Amino acid sequence: MQSQGLTITGQGFNDARMPISGEQNHQLKAEIAAHPLCEQLLSAHVACLRVATPVDHLPLIDARLSHSHHILSSYAHSPTPSLSKHQRQELDSLLAQYLLVLCSFREKLHQHVRVDAVEAAIGCREIEHNLQSLTGVTLGEGSGATMSDDDEDEQQTDSSLDQSGFDELDLMGSLGPLLPSETERNLMERVRQELKIELKQGFKSRIGEVREEILRKRRAGKLPDDTTTVLKNWWQQHSKWPYPTEDDKAKLVEETGLQLKQINNWFINQRKRKWQNSNSLSPSSRRTKHK
User: Fold this and answer.
1) What is the pLDDT of residues 117-141, one digit of tens each?
2) Which residue ranges does the record annotate as region Disordered (predicted)?
3) What backbone phi and psi angles, to 5 degrees, belong to 63?
4) Which terminus in the chain has less CB density within 10 A, N or C?
């Protein structure tokens, strides 16, 4: 999977600048399509789109959603090699974090559309009202006509101004949840462009934090419990000579999903711990302790 700076390769998560093959890309898409969080992620994406989408464009979202289900189904039924336990844990963690990010962004979108954009639309209406009061010209008039040009126009203008009242609750009700009027749609488009930049930065930052956390744990040398269990079992079976051959290491890499360097480091540290324990329990050390 390639998403905002992260990919999953045979070795785990790496930087997106590292190229991956088409087969790996297909495998990762299939894993995501079969993942239990896939439907929730798709719903979260659609929820973000619906917040600021004009009413007449909603059928397009439904059509694309139906098409996406067909695509996901084709990936889910394609035979692919499964991920290791370690890789699956990292995939679970990343998708869970991504779902939280999408839910958070939906709340931000909702805040902008239902509050900020509506307040901006109210401000535009007030400016238009003031312009009409001072000059008799509406924003939609291009001829420069005034209220005195036609008595009938004057009567209609006065009537419309008296009926509007600019009551905030009435205005919000008339706008509806998606701001369907032309002027408000133009305003929404500007808001959406600003949000696009803001969300992209926020998403990039959050994924960067997740990546740094994964790398930090790797640098700290803390391996998942299931992988250390496999290594400890091998150690106990070969305690008399705990030096795995290259073939043994290759099998351990396949079973644990760890890198060869991580396995080598674990055995080096394990042998050091065993030697330290042996020295602490030697007769000479016990005599020194009694003295």
Assistant:
1) 667 777 777 777 777 777 776 655 4
2) 138-166
3) -65, -45
4) C
